[in-house]
């Protein structure tokens, strides 16, 4: 019979996996849902080797604010990139009462696939990830426990909302 070794504990907990773009180093993928202006609404983490579409349901369920009930006239839209171009992602979006807008594999972005501000819709999510990466503890993951890392991400998202509300309050 063998007992556990005295080596260092594994870093990252359960939600790490080999990063396919970084020589197989362990990494974490963040799946983020934002509103039209880039404010974070929901967030989940998983290993870096998990496909995006497998995190869609968990991301939609992680929304922390009460979502307005969708009506027939005003259904909510969900813009997704090419990683979600499959039937399962469309089913998840339909189950959560969203109208999915998915970039198809092999197609270029159409001019109509832009936010009313003129920016591409995907850019809004990338900008929010840029805001979150300003926090060094989030850019380089130091936490061994998944719950600690997720808590720091959620705290940073709350801080983004606080700063936004502070700026909007100052304009009045």
Automatic annotation (TrEMBL):
InterPro entries associated with the record: Transposase_11
A GO BP entry: DNA transposition
Region annotated Disordered, chain positions: 1-28
Residue ranges of domain Transposase IS4-like in the record: 21-159
Gene Ontology molecular function: DNA binding; transposase activity
Database matches in NCBIfam families: transpos_IS5_3
Protein name in UniProt: Transposase and inactivated derivatives
Origin species: Hahella chejuensis (strain KCTC 2396)
């Amino acid at each position: 019979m063998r007992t556990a070794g005295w080596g260092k504990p594994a870093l990252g907990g359960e939600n790490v996996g080999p990063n396919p773009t970084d020589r197989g180093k362990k990494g974490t993928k963040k799946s983020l849902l934002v509103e039209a202006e880039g404010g974070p609404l929901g967030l989940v983490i998983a290993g870096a080797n998990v496909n995006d579409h497998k995190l869609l349901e968990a991301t939609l369920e992680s929304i922390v604010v009460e979502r307005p009930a969708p009506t027939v006239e005003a259904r909510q839209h969900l813009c997704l990139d090419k990683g979600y171009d499959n039937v399962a992602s469309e089913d998840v979006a339909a189950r959560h009462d969203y109208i999915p807008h998915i970039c198809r594999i092999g197609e270029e972005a159409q001019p109509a696939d832009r936010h009313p501000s003129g920016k591409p819709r995907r850019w809004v999510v990338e900008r929010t990830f840029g805001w979150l990466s300003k926090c060094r503890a989030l850019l380089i993951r130091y936490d061994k426990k998944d719950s600690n890392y997720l808590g720091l991400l959620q705290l940073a998202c709350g801080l983004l909302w606080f700063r936004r509300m502070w700026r909007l309050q100052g304009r009045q």
